[in-house]
Write a structure and sequence with these properties.
The chain has three domains: 31-83, no CATH class; 88-163, Double Stranded RNA Binding Domain; 186-265, 2-Layer Sandwich (Ribosomal Protein S5, domain 2). Helices cover 31% and strands 25% of the residues. The chain contains seven helices and 13 strands. Strands 1, 4, 5, 6 and 7 form a five-stranded antiparallel beta sheet that branches. Helix 2 (51-58) runs parallel beside helix 4 (77-83). The chain starts with 21 loop residues before the first helix and ends with a strand.
Length: 266
Protein backbone atom coordinates (compact mmCIF):
# COMPACT_ATOMS: atom_id res chain seq x y z
CA UNK A 1 0.00 0.00 0.00
CA UNK A 2 1.40 3.34 -1.05
CA UNK A 3 2.40 5.63 1.74
CA UNK A 4 0.36 8.82 1.96
CA UNK A 5 2.33 12.05 1.80
CA UNK A 6 2.05 14.45 4.67
CA UNK A 7 1.08 17.71 3.02
CA UNK A 8 0.81 19.55 6.29
CA UNK A 9 4.46 18.94 6.99
CA UNK A 10 5.64 21.03 4.05
CA UNK A 11 7.10 24.46 4.80
CA UNK A 12 4.78 27.30 3.90
CA UNK A 13 5.71 29.44 0.97
CA UNK A 14 6.47 33.06 1.69
CA UNK A 15 3.53 35.27 0.80
CA UNK A 16 4.34 38.33 -1.31
CA UNK A 17 3.93 41.55 0.61
CA UNK A 18 2.56 44.81 -0.77
CA UNK A 19 4.67 46.97 1.50
CA UNK A 20 6.33 49.82 -0.42
CA UNK A 21 10.05 49.46 -0.93
CA UNK A 22 12.66 52.19 -0.80
CA UNK A 23 12.93 52.18 -4.60
CA UNK A 24 9.17 52.46 -4.96
CA UNK A 25 9.02 55.40 -2.56
CA UNK A 26 11.85 57.17 -4.40
CA UNK A 27 10.14 56.59 -7.75
CA UNK A 28 6.85 57.98 -6.39
CA UNK A 29 8.58 61.07 -5.00
CA UNK A 30 10.39 61.54 -8.31
CA UNK A 31 7.08 61.32 -10.18
CA UNK A 32 5.46 63.89 -7.90
CA UNK A 33 8.40 66.26 -8.36
CA UNK A 34 8.24 65.89 -12.15
CA UNK A 35 4.50 66.54 -12.18
CA UNK A 36 4.97 69.66 -10.04
CA UNK A 37 7.70 70.89 -12.42
CA UNK A 38 5.46 70.37 -15.44
CA UNK A 39 2.61 72.20 -13.71
CA UNK A 40 4.89 75.13 -12.82
CA UNK A 41 6.17 75.35 -16.41
CA UNK A 42 2.63 75.23 -17.75
CA UNK A 43 1.48 78.07 -15.47
CA UNK A 44 4.58 80.07 -16.38
CA UNK A 45 3.66 79.91 -20.08
CA UNK A 46 -0.05 80.51 -19.40
CA UNK A 47 -1.54 83.45 -21.30
CA UNK A 48 -4.77 84.52 -19.58
CA UNK A 49 -7.69 85.70 -21.69
CA UNK A 50 -10.01 87.13 -19.02
CA UNK A 51 -9.56 90.18 -16.81
CA UNK A 52 -9.61 87.99 -13.71
CA UNK A 53 -6.94 85.72 -15.14
CA UNK A 54 -4.69 88.69 -15.94
CA UNK A 55 -4.94 89.94 -12.36
CA UNK A 56 -4.03 86.49 -11.04
CA UNK A 57 -1.10 86.26 -13.45
CA UNK A 58 0.23 89.68 -12.37
CA UNK A 59 -0.09 88.80 -8.68
CA UNK A 60 -2.85 91.31 -7.84
CA UNK A 61 -5.01 88.42 -6.55
CA UNK A 62 -3.18 85.90 -4.37
CA UNK A 63 -6.02 84.11 -2.56
CA UNK A 64 -9.00 82.20 -3.96
CA UNK A 65 -11.18 83.70 -1.21
CA UNK A 66 -10.88 87.12 -2.82
CA UNK A 67 -12.73 85.68 -5.81
CA UNK A 68 -15.28 83.50 -4.03
CA UNK A 69 -16.29 86.19 -1.51
CA UNK A 70 -17.19 88.60 -4.33
CA UNK A 71 -19.08 85.93 -6.28
CA UNK A 72 -17.00 86.43 -9.44
CA UNK A 73 -17.35 83.59 -11.91
CA UNK A 74 -14.14 81.74 -12.78
CA UNK A 75 -13.79 81.09 -16.52
CA UNK A 76 -10.22 79.76 -16.66
CA UNK A 77 -9.11 76.57 -14.91
CA UNK A 78 -5.56 77.87 -14.62
CA UNK A 79 -6.77 80.39 -12.03
CA UNK A 80 -7.55 77.55 -9.63
CA UNK A 81 -4.23 75.84 -10.39
CA UNK A 82 -2.45 79.08 -9.59
CA UNK A 83 -4.25 79.97 -6.33
CA UNK A 84 -5.11 76.60 -4.76
CA UNK A 85 -2.27 74.25 -3.82
CA UNK A 86 -2.30 70.51 -3.09
CA UNK A 87 -5.21 69.84 -5.44
CA UNK A 88 -6.21 66.21 -5.86
CA UNK A 89 -8.65 64.77 -8.37
CA UNK A 90 -10.87 61.70 -8.54
CA UNK A 91 -13.75 60.40 -10.64
CA UNK A 92 -17.22 59.20 -9.68
CA UNK A 93 -18.32 55.80 -11.00
CA UNK A 94 -21.45 56.95 -12.84
CA UNK A 95 -21.34 54.30 -15.58
CA UNK A 96 -22.15 50.60 -15.57
CA UNK A 97 -20.85 47.74 -17.69
CA UNK A 98 -23.20 45.28 -19.33
CA UNK A 99 -24.03 42.36 -17.06
CA UNK A 100 -26.64 39.70 -16.57
CA UNK A 101 -29.88 40.88 -14.97
CA UNK A 102 -28.53 44.44 -14.63
CA UNK A 103 -25.64 43.39 -12.40
CA UNK A 104 -22.88 45.05 -14.39
CA UNK A 105 -19.80 46.46 -12.73
CA UNK A 106 -19.62 50.20 -12.06
CA UNK A 107 -17.44 52.13 -14.47
CA UNK A 108 -15.89 55.55 -14.69
CA UNK A 109 -17.54 56.49 -18.00
CA UNK A 110 -21.26 56.48 -18.73
CA UNK A 111 -21.96 55.63 -22.36
CA UNK A 112 -25.15 56.60 -24.16
CA UNK A 113 -26.24 56.35 -27.79
CA UNK A 114 -28.46 58.43 -30.03
CA UNK A 115 -30.38 56.72 -32.82
CA UNK A 116 -30.12 58.65 -36.09
CA UNK A 117 -30.61 57.91 -39.78
CA UNK A 118 -26.84 57.62 -40.19
CA UNK A 119 -26.60 55.10 -37.34
CA UNK A 120 -25.83 55.12 -33.64
CA UNK A 121 -23.91 58.14 -32.30
CA UNK A 122 -22.24 57.28 -28.96
CA UNK A 123 -21.49 59.83 -26.25
CA UNK A 124 -19.29 59.41 -23.18
CA UNK A 125 -19.88 61.25 -19.89
CA UNK A 126 -17.57 61.53 -16.87
CA UNK A 127 -17.92 63.22 -13.46
CA UNK A 128 -14.84 64.53 -11.69
CA UNK A 129 -14.10 65.78 -8.17
CA UNK A 130 -11.23 68.03 -7.14
CA UNK A 131 -10.26 69.34 -3.70
CA UNK A 132 -7.37 70.36 -1.51
CA UNK A 133 -8.59 68.55 1.62
CA UNK A 134 -8.78 71.86 3.48
CA UNK A 135 -12.20 73.38 2.82
CA UNK A 136 -12.29 73.69 -0.99
CA UNK A 137 -13.77 71.30 -3.54
CA UNK A 138 -15.33 71.28 -6.99
CA UNK A 139 -17.47 68.90 -9.02
CA UNK A 140 -17.81 68.89 -12.79
CA UNK A 141 -19.11 66.78 -15.66
CA UNK A 142 -17.91 66.42 -19.22
CA UNK A 143 -19.41 64.82 -22.32
CA UNK A 144 -17.55 64.02 -25.55
CA UNK A 145 -17.41 61.53 -28.41
CA UNK A 146 -14.47 59.76 -26.74
CA UNK A 147 -13.66 58.87 -23.14
CA UNK A 148 -10.38 60.81 -22.68
CA UNK A 149 -11.77 64.19 -23.83
CA UNK A 150 -14.77 63.60 -21.55
CA UNK A 151 -12.45 63.14 -18.55
CA UNK A 152 -10.50 66.27 -19.42
CA UNK A 153 -13.70 68.29 -19.76
CA UNK A 154 -14.92 67.00 -16.39
CA UNK A 155 -11.66 68.02 -14.67
CA UNK A 156 -11.80 71.48 -16.21
CA UNK A 157 -15.46 71.92 -15.24
CA UNK A 158 -14.70 70.84 -11.67
CA UNK A 159 -12.02 73.52 -11.36
CA UNK A 160 -14.41 76.18 -12.69
CA UNK A 161 -17.02 75.13 -10.08
CA UNK A 162 -14.71 75.28 -7.05
CA UNK A 163 -16.41 76.37 -3.83
CA UNK A 164 -15.73 76.73 -0.13
CA UNK A 165 -17.40 74.62 2.55
CA UNK A 166 -18.10 75.18 6.23
CA UNK A 167 -16.38 72.88 8.71
CA UNK A 168 -16.53 72.67 12.47
CA UNK A 169 -17.34 70.39 15.40
CA UNK A 170 -21.09 70.32 15.93
CA UNK A 171 -21.33 67.01 17.81
CA UNK A 172 -22.09 67.39 21.52
CA UNK A 173 -20.19 64.19 22.32
CA UNK A 174 -16.94 65.68 21.02
CA UNK A 175 -16.73 69.45 21.53
CA UNK A 176 -13.07 69.62 20.52
CA UNK A 177 -13.56 72.78 18.45
CA UNK A 178 -11.46 71.51 15.53
CA UNK A 179 -12.82 71.65 11.95
CA UNK A 180 -13.08 67.91 11.39
CA UNK A 181 -16.84 67.64 10.80
CA UNK A 182 -19.93 69.76 10.13
CA UNK A 183 -21.02 72.56 12.46
CA UNK A 184 -24.67 71.41 12.34
CA UNK A 185 -27.06 69.06 10.58
CA UNK A 186 -27.85 69.86 6.93
CA UNK A 187 -29.96 68.24 4.22
CA UNK A 188 -29.99 68.31 0.43
CA UNK A 189 -32.19 66.92 -2.31
CA UNK A 190 -31.90 66.18 -6.02
CA UNK A 191 -34.58 64.25 -7.86
CA UNK A 192 -35.78 61.44 -5.63
CA UNK A 193 -32.53 61.34 -3.63
CA UNK A 194 -32.45 63.01 -0.22
CA UNK A 195 -29.20 63.18 1.79
CA UNK A 196 -28.90 64.15 5.44
CA UNK A 197 -25.41 65.00 6.74
CA UNK A 198 -24.85 65.01 10.49
CA UNK A 199 -21.77 65.96 12.55
CA UNK A 200 -19.94 63.08 14.20
CA UNK A 201 -17.36 62.87 17.01
CA UNK A 202 -13.67 62.44 16.33
CA UNK A 203 -12.65 58.97 15.24
CA UNK A 204 -15.98 58.07 13.64
CA UNK A 205 -14.75 58.44 10.07
CA UNK A 206 -16.92 59.00 7.02
CA UNK A 207 -19.96 56.77 7.55
CA UNK A 208 -21.39 57.02 4.03
CA UNK A 209 -21.36 55.48 0.57
CA UNK A 210 -18.00 55.12 -1.21
CA UNK A 211 -18.68 57.71 -3.92
CA UNK A 212 -19.79 60.27 -1.32
CA UNK A 213 -16.60 59.57 0.63
CA UNK A 214 -14.59 60.84 -2.35
CA UNK A 215 -16.47 64.15 -2.24
CA UNK A 216 -16.31 64.63 1.54
CA UNK A 217 -12.64 63.61 1.72
CA UNK A 218 -11.75 66.09 -1.06
CA UNK A 219 -13.55 68.86 0.86
CA UNK A 220 -11.58 68.10 4.06
CA UNK A 221 -14.17 66.31 6.21
CA UNK A 222 -12.99 63.45 8.43
CA UNK A 223 -16.00 62.48 10.59
CA UNK A 224 -19.59 62.58 9.30
CA UNK A 225 -22.75 60.53 9.74
CA UNK A 226 -25.13 60.29 6.77
CA UNK A 227 -28.67 59.16 6.13
CA UNK A 228 -30.03 58.71 2.60
CA UNK A 229 -33.45 58.24 1.03
CA UNK A 230 -34.61 57.51 -2.52
CA UNK A 231 -32.87 55.98 -5.54
CA UNK A 232 -29.25 56.43 -4.44
CA UNK A 233 -28.09 54.21 -7.32
CA UNK A 234 -28.39 57.33 -9.49
CA UNK A 235 -24.93 58.63 -8.60
CA UNK A 236 -25.33 62.00 -10.31
CA UNK A 237 -28.41 62.82 -8.24
CA UNK A 238 -26.66 61.42 -5.18
CA UNK A 239 -23.69 63.75 -5.64
CA UNK A 240 -25.88 66.77 -6.45
CA UNK A 241 -27.92 66.24 -3.29
CA UNK A 242 -24.72 66.12 -1.21
CA UNK A 243 -23.45 69.31 -2.86
CA UNK A 244 -26.72 71.08 -2.07
CA UNK A 245 -26.44 70.02 1.58
CA UNK A 246 -22.85 71.32 1.82
CA UNK A 247 -23.89 74.57 0.16
CA UNK A 248 -26.64 75.05 2.73
CA UNK A 249 -24.10 74.56 5.51
CA UNK A 250 -22.00 77.34 3.99
CA UNK A 251 -24.93 79.73 3.53
CA UNK A 252 -26.25 79.33 7.09
CA UNK A 253 -24.94 81.68 9.74
CA UNK A 254 -24.91 81.11 13.49
CA UNK A 255 -25.16 83.95 15.97
CA UNK A 256 -21.82 84.60 17.65
CA UNK A 257 -19.90 82.39 15.21
CA UNK A 258 -17.70 83.77 12.45
CA UNK A 259 -16.67 81.57 9.50
CA UNK A 260 -12.93 81.32 8.84
CA UNK A 261 -10.75 79.75 6.16
CA UNK A 262 -12.74 76.74 5.01
CA UNK A 263 -14.06 76.20 8.51
CA UNK A 264 -16.67 77.42 10.95
CA UNK A 265 -15.26 77.94 14.40
CA UNK A 266 -15.58 80.53 17.16
Amino acid sequence: MARQKKLYGRPREAQPTNAPTAQGIEAAERGVAMAAARQAAFLENWKPKTELGKKVKLGEITDIRQILDKGVRIREAEIVDKLVSNLTSDFILIGQAHGKFGGGKRRLIRQTQKKTAEGNKPAFTAMSIIGNGDGYFGVGTGTAKESMPAREKALRDAKLNIQQVARGCGEWKCGCGEPHSLPFKVEGRSGSVRVKLMPAPKGTGLACEDEIKKLLRAAGYKDIWTKTFGQTRKKINFINATIQALRRATEMRVKGVKPKIGSLSA
